[in-house]
């Protein structure tokens, strides 16, 4: 299931093997049968021709592709936000520096682009309220996970849609710069389904609901005041409850901390219980 129709043009092949580094003190096996999912950004790298990009994860560590999917194709560019599925092979300290950052050599199973946006200011919306309020939308969404990672607010969510939907949904994050909230930055997660949603009767149990999964990352680096490293944040959205039968205004609060190197955001890690019922769609949910 994906949140966007665009995919990186990638080459898939299996490497014949992976040679370990001679320095056993700085290089060790971290593999096994487990695979992992993580968010990060593409970073250009000279990796001996295997892959033109590594992945810099939100903890600041670098995932160097040594096996599996090689990222070389058209459309891949540095800074692109991605969602990666991989397994660890080996690791070493990055550039032989013992500063906590690591190079992890991975077998990449799959890579997908993540929709990434910056917050929209409420004053911008108000400047053309008649058109922009409707365009941004007020449709509910079931947020399943919300967390600060790197300089981002990351959201995973489910949305009830029409069967076999091909409608593109719009997502935005609106920062309230009009009403004073003390030191707190108020952010509202907004969704426009463009009519692609079940009827009230279907939501209340008189029909089958179809749910699609999506994810989005919002760059919060601009919300931290000059000279500061952190800011209290209140996240608001209109959410589905009771398996989609009801909606209510949901809120989360945390402190967003942006480190000097711009790679680590902390202070929010939310995982909701199952908020939806019915059949989950396996189709792509197109978002913009």
Describe, in plain words, how this protein is organized in 3D.
This protein is about 5% helix and about 45% strand. The chain contains 3 helices and 18 strands. It has helices at about 120-125, 130-135, 200-205; strands at about 10, 25-30, 35-45, 55, 60-70, 80-95, 100-115, 115, 120, 140-150, 150-160, 170-175, 185-190, 210-220, 230-240, 245-255, 270, 280. The strands form 3 sheets. Strands 8, 10, 11, 14, 17 and 18 form a 6-stranded mixed sheet that branches. Strands 3-4-5-7-6 form a 5-stranded mixed β-barrel. A 5-stranded mixed sheet has the order 9-12-13-15-16. The relative contact order is 0.18. Residues about 1-30 have low confidence and may be disordered.
Low-confidence stretches: 1-31
Distance between the termini: 15 Å
Note the beta-strand portion: 35-45%
Molecular shape: globular
List the quaternary state of the chains: single chain
Give a concise summary.
The protein is mostly beta strands. 6% of the residues lie in helices and 45% in strands. A hairpin with a 4-residue loop joins strand 4 and strand 5.
Which features would summarize this protein structure in a list?
288 residues; mainly beta; globular; disordered N terminus
Question: Secondary-structure blueprint of this entry?
Answer:
Blueprint: E1 11-12, E2 27-29, E3 36-44, E4 53-57, E5 62-70, E6 81-93, E7 102-113, E8 115-117, E9 120-121, H1 122-127, H2 129-136, E10 142-149, E11 152-161, E12 170-175, E13 185-192, H3 200-203, E14 210-219, E15 230-241, E16 246-257, E17 269-271, E18 279-280
Parallel strand pairs: 5-7, 8-14, 9-12, 13-15, 14-18
Antiparallel strand pairs: 1-5, 2-6, 3-4, 3-6, 4-5, 6-7, 10-11, 10-17, 11-14, 12-13, 15-16
Organism: Candidatus Odoribacter faecigallinarum
Signal peptide: 1-19
Pfam family, one: NigD_C
């Amino acid at each position: 299931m994906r949140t966007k129709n665009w995919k990186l043009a990638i080459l898939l092949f299996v490497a014949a093997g992976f040679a370990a580094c001679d320095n056993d003190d700085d290089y060790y096996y971290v593999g096994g049968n487990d695979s992992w999912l993580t968010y990060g950004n593409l970073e250009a790298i000279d990796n001996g021709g295997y892959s033109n990009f590594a992945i810099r994860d939100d903890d600041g560590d670098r995932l160097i592709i040594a096996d599996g999917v090689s990222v070389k194709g058209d459309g891949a560019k540095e800074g692109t936000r991605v969602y990666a599925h991989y397994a660890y092979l080996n690791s070493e300290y990055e550039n032989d520096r013992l500063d906590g950052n690591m190079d992890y050599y991975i077998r990449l199973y799959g890579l997908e682009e993540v929709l990434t946006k910056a917050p929209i200011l409420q004053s911008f919306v108000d400047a053309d309220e008649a058109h922009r309020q409707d365009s941004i939308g007020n449709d509910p969404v079931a947020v399943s996970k919300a967390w600060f990672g790197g300089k981002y607010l990351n959201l995973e969510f489910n949305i009830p849609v029409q069967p076999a939907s091909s409608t593109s949904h719009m997502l935005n994050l609106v920062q309230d710069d009009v009403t004073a909230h003390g030191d707190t930055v108020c952010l509202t997660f907004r969704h426009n389904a463009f009519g692609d949603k079940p009827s009230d009767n279907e939501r209340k149990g008189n029909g089958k609901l179809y749910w699609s999964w999506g994810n989005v990352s919002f760059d919060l680096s601009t919300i931290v005041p000059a000279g500061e490293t952190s800011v209290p944040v209140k996240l608001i959205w209109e959410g589905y409850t009771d398996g989609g039968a009801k909606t209510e205004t949901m809120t989360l609060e945390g402190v967003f901390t942006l480190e000097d190197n711009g790679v680590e955001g902390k202070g929010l890690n939310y995982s909701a219980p199952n908020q939806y019922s019915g059949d989950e769609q396996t189709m792509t949910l197109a978002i913009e």
